[in-house]
From TrEMBL:
Keyword Cell inner membrane among record annotations: no
GO cellular component, one term: rixosome complex
Biological process (GO), any one: DNA-templated DNA replication
Span list, region Disordered: 458-480
Keywords: Repeat, WD repeat
Name of the featured protein: Wd repeat-containing protein
Chain intervals with Polar residues compositional bias: 469-480
One Pfam match: WD40
Length: 480
């Protein structure tokens, strides 16, 4: 069975950093310094990078920060400083695009490989609290502090024809009465969306009919939600540390059915503070819960017993991510074993003007070998690419000179071939011209012979005696 690692972080202070444990043994594997991330601010990018938005100090007027750590080299982060503080983060399943929500209600979308900012727009009137791409990457779902949920088309977000255009949402709901704390999309049915809120409710939405098809009410604020890998149960963490386990029941036979707490199938008790995050192990055998009591708990799904507690003394845990433990291994020194690393670039601080965006060319491949001397050397930017292109255009490099020589040779071969073709055409025309001249010279002689033969004929003694048939034959002979 594949070994797994639990990644957690706090929002207390930057010195708290990121802590990594072995899930089964509880052994401390790694500590990454300088990280303090708000809820929903930590994501794993295609199992190669950890990406975390950083909290902003109280009263600070500076911009935000997003740090990116290669899992095989976690002590060399790529630091990005967007124009404003970023809260929730999410990425597409293929890791090509990263989205971040802010306190001002704006959403930013970046292309990971180039770092280019593709879109920036005012998505909500209040601060964003949750952000998530659908399982098929076709939708971006956002939730705000005032309880509003909006659904956006991913295709429209990638349209770079106008950065300043107002992006239109597909759906907008105000069914929740308080801040959104969780947004989940189904891997089985792309039309199902699950939301939770501090108003003590969880709602199941049908994106096709644009309606709530199930709603469950609790007497406490729901602070985190998750689904098991088979999507049979919905786990709802509350503000008092309890975790409610309910059958998902996402059937669409009945609409807007409200279920109470008494209809819950099971309640897990193991924390003394509000639940801050819920997740499942990659194997699906364990449920992991995090709490404001600075602990994370590992639950065995076969008997729902708490088998291990992880203590995080550096502050409450705001985010948990489960990754394969093998990703933490340093790069292989064996050159015969080649692996590939997903490439990221520094994120743009501002949207690029339309003309600049069209002129820039991304020449970097999406993957690079781990055998490179320095991974950070892969963090190249578009300006460097443009400089290389300019050098080629102005013949400053050996490659440019070689290209010029090759072009001259090709042009010379083309000129030679064209000259041969023209010479052959000239010979053919001269031959045709000589044939025509000989034909014209022979016509008067034939006419004279015909006249003499018909002048001394038995039927007529003079040219006036030629009939119409003879004249027609004579004309045909002249034409030939």
């Amino acid at each position: 069975m594949m070994k797994e690692a639990l990644v957690v972080c706090s929002d207390k202070s930057l010195s708290a950093g990121i802590t990594v444990w072995d899930i089964e043994t509880g052994d401390h594997l790694l500590h990454i310094p300088t990280c303090a991330s708000p809820p929903h601010g930590l994501v794993c990018l295609r199992n190669h990078f950890l990406v975390a938005s950083q909290i902003q100090k109280q009263g600070s007027v500076a911009g935000g920060a997003i740090f990116i750590w290669p899992l095989n080299k976690p002590h060399a982060p790529l630091r990005n400083y967007p124009i404003e503080a970023t809260g929730p983060l999410c990425c597409t399943k293929d890791g090509l695009y990263l989205a971040g929500g802010t306190l001002s209600g704006k959403v930013y979308v970046w292309e990971v490989s180039s770092g280019r900012m593709l879109k920036c727009w005012h998505a909500h009137k209040k601060a964003l609290t949750c952000l998530n791409f659908s399982s098929d990457n076709s939708l971006l779902i956002s939730g705000s502090n005032d309880g509003e949920i909006r659904v956006w088309s991913t295709v429209s977000l990638l349209d770079m024809t106008d950065f300043q255009s107002v992006t239109s949402f597909l759906h907008a709901w105000m069914e929740h009465q308080s801040s959104i704390t969780g947004l989940l999309t189904s891997d089985i049915s792309s039309s199902v969306l699950i939301s939770s809120s501090l108003d003590g409710t969880c709602k199941i939405w049908d994106l096709i009919s644009d309606k709530v098809v199930r709603a469950r009410a609790f007497p406490l604020a729901i602070t985190a939600i998750t689904l098991d890998p088979e999507e049979r149960f919905l786990f709802s963490g509350s503000s008092d540390g309890r975790i409610f386990v309910n059958t998902l029941d996402a059937g669409l036979e009945e609409e807007n059915v409200v279920l109470s707490e008494e209809q819950s199938s099971m309640v897990l008790c193991g924390h003394k503070g509000a639940i801050t995050a819920l997740s499942f192990s990659l194997s699906g055998l364990f449920l992991i819960s995090a709490s404001e009591d600075c602990t994370a708990c590992l639950w065995d799904v076969r008997n729902w017993a708490a088998i291990h507690n992880f203590s995080h003394k550096k502050g409450r845990i705001t985010n948990i991510v489960v990754i394969p433990r093998s990703l933490l291994l340093p790069r292989m020194e064996n050159l015969h074993k080649v692996s590939f690393q997903f490439r990221v670039s520094p994120l743009d601080k501002y949207p690029q003007p339309e003309c600049t965006a069209k002129r820039s060319v991304t020449l970097l491949p999406k993957y690079c070998s781990l055998e490179d001397d320095h991974l950070m050397s892969g963090f190249q930017i578009t300006d460097t690419m443009n400089q290389q292109i300019m050098d080629l255009e102005q013949d400053r490099t050996p490659e440019a000179i070689q290209m010029k020589v090759d072009t001259s040779v090709e042009r010379r071969l083309w000129a030679t071939s064209t000259a041969k073709h023209v010479t052959e055409m000239n010979k053919h025309l001269r031959s045709r011209l000589l044939d025509l001249m000989q034909s014209r010279l022979s016509c008067p002689l034939e006419f004279s012979t015909i006249g003499k033969r018909r002048q001394f004929g038995a039927s007529s003694a003079s040219p006036a005696g030629m009939n119409a048939e003879n004249i027609q034959h004579t004309s045909l002979d002249l034409m030939q």
